[in-house]
Amino acid sequence: MANQSNYIKLALPKGRLLPATANLLADGDLGFKGYTERTRQYRLQSRNLPYLAAKIFREKDIPIQVAIGNYDLGICGLDWIEELLLRYKASAVAKISALNYGGGYVYAAVSYKSGISNLDEFLARQRNWRIVSEYPNLAEAFALSVRMRRFRIFPVWGDAEVYPPEDAEIAILGARNRRELERKGLLPLMKLLPTKAMIIANQKNLNSKDLGKVLNCFASKLDDKEFSLSFEELGRKEGSIESLPRPELKKVRLALPDGHQLPPTAQLLKRVGLNLSHYSVEALDYHPSVDLDWLDIKVIRPQDMPLQVANGNFDLAITGRDWLLDHVYRFPSSPVVELLDLDFGKVKVVAATSQEMPVSTIEEVKQLLQRGKLSTLRVASEYVNISDKYLCDHHVSPYKLIPTWGTSEAFLPEDADLLIDNTQTGETMAEHNLEIIDTLCESTACLIGNKESIVSPDRKEEIDFLIQMMRGGLA
Amino acid sequence: MESQRCKGMRDLLPDDMRRFRHIEDTFRNCCVKWGYREVRTPSLEYLHLFTATGTLTPSRLGRAYSFLDWNGWSGERVVLRPDGTIPIARLYIENLSQQQNARLFYVTDIFAFEQTGKENRERWQCGVEFLGGAGPMADVELILLARELLHNLGIGEVELRLSHAGLAKALVKELGLSPRGEAEMLGRILDGDWQTWRKVKSNNLELDRFLASVVNFKGKLGGFLKKVELPASQASAELKSNISDFTDIVRLLDDLKCDYLIDIAAIHGFEYYTGVCLQLFYRGEKIGGGGRYDELLSLMGSKNMPACGFAIYVEPVIKMLSLREDERSESGVLVKAGERTPGVMEACFGLAQSLRNTGHIVELDLTGGRASDYRWVVSVSGEGSFVIIDRKTGEKREVSSLTQVVGMLGGVD
Q1: Which of B53, B73, B116 has its CB closest to that of A310?
Q2: Is residue A247 one of the residues assigned to a domain?
Q3: pLDDT tens digits for range B363-382
Q4: Which CATH number among 3.40.50.720, 3.30.930.10, 3.10.450.50, 2.60.40.420 corresponds to the domain B14-320?
Q5: Is A124 touching B (CB cutoff 8 A)?
Q6: pTM over the 0.80 mark
């Protein structure tokens, strides 16, 4: 193995940038076998360069991993780099160059149904806006730059396009082009920045290591142009667009999950006789219609539901108890309550360490810290608030929380010491050589509601009807 | 050992605090004499107070410590106070708006992120706000109050630089930009970037020359009036009225023999200023600033209300103050117990209390080995004897009763 100080670590993206990045690496003769869309591997070793290793991450994790110095180089979209730098200006991330792929932009867009045609009209319409985005920091920069007076940002895990106009006035989201947004029923008012692929480096390692030999392999694909945050106004200047009738909000609003929880939720609803059109993995409409004229349904991420129910966008939602807990730990006075245990989608939220680490309880992890074997415990988790509470309750100190967006198990052992994640059978954990050292809670799918709206006289009857209906469907 | 203090935060040690308290006490005495009353606002405020156009510029907002509170599920963000004036305006609107005017002062910390972590991210200021204060007399009152305060702190040769936000805004308007372009340019100017100005030209060469000469002007009223009088016929009513407001203030300062320097480009940092802006410098370092903000209260949803204010920055002023002898070395007493018997310990506590009752600062030396920075050291021993050393004169006396010690040391006024 090459000398550690000369070893170069590269963070590679999953998802939209993967195919073009794989070609780039192949053309540069870096030879990473197994960097494909279907891979189940996370760690890759260059066949040609013995000192070069890579790991696969979600795009939004990459700037953070490079900034903290776990990786010397990374490839990801400019959008995620700016999202980090806007909030953490002193991050040690150096933008080396843009690559000639990954086109698209982050847009600020409104629903066509809103009848708004440009930014000035949008800003003149009201004085208290709801902004939905996977990029909360970009969203804040946008709001401040256009001088919105009062705004609320709803950070979401995905599907930002589903929210306007009922649940947010504007979405800040990425898209390949205008047409893609238009197909989703959105009108872009502003282009915030390109989502082009970029090569980034850790600032400190850029000065102390010889990264040039790897960077040279990319030379032919570099894009000389400078890309950065520059807000460009879009929309239609002349005259209003054809004003569609603003949709009337129905009496009761229910949020249903996509992803793993979709099939069992669909089965439950079928069992209780609630007929939805296009709520299945094969044919998913994010706004499925239902045969109850007072009920409006949207499909969103389960992680985002407690916040959406808390702020009154939805009266009811089906999500996991894990996400409800994560929400309530962060916002103890939140009006969200569990109404019904639906008894499917059972998982355990556990703490796990690498099998290489000589511990089998959290107390033993603490001892490693006390004895100085670990300087800081690095904890990777999707459940930021559950993790924070667990670590505080156990007086673990010091620790650093690394928020992740899925596939957190890949972080151990190099990039984190402890994982807090959910597991059904523990098999995936074992596959990644992880050992479960504690169970934090058990979680099943549940029906949650806003405790104020469920007693509201104008919809109490309908909400009770739905709760009873779902209760009837439980075995 | 690695520091455990947060980056950009600062500890104030006893000597710093002595200087800090001196500034605060001097400030408080001054303000009270001018009829101002003290208030204090909370450290947390809603972000939206600071986001309206005409309050803080986007670059300042980008450095605010904003976050979601424990009940922030609604998405409403809060901030650690990023500015001193806006919370006072809110306090007035919520609590005192039945009053025609309110003269208020405060000592507060404000928070702004600073990238390197080497500068303070929490800064203290002593501020004064005159809500309802209209016209040149109110502006001049604040200028004189600021000068008196600095004089009382013993900081002489303070340079007062004057500009006028209304005038600067009117000058930008003369360029005929779009409303958004105008707002962007003002934002840059307020962030200290006058270079922007040079890049933009109107279609009128004479106007450009006039604008450049006003922007670059540094001097007294006479020279300023010559600069602005030439194309006055072409100037807009807004420009004229701002020039006349500025002239009235400066003329009054001339009459009062108050020294100043007109420097139109010396306008910095706050979008809410509408009239005269003042900046105070001592040996090249900025130690305070302020100005008139007639539109802020109406922007925050209140009735129209003229207002002006200034603040003195505590950190640079602390560095300029020399430490005077304190009460310890003038009349303080260190009481040492010769031995730890119950009788001696009781005598020590009894003596200390009697001396405190006569106004002395008294510290008990529990270890017996403490070096003294007090005027007197009194050692108490077993047989009811007291040895008194006056460190000022070097004199040493031995007495046999507590009353004699109190009598010797005398009272403190």
Answers
A1: B73
A2: no
A3: 999 776 677 789 999 999 87
A4: 3.30.930.10
A5: no
A6: yes
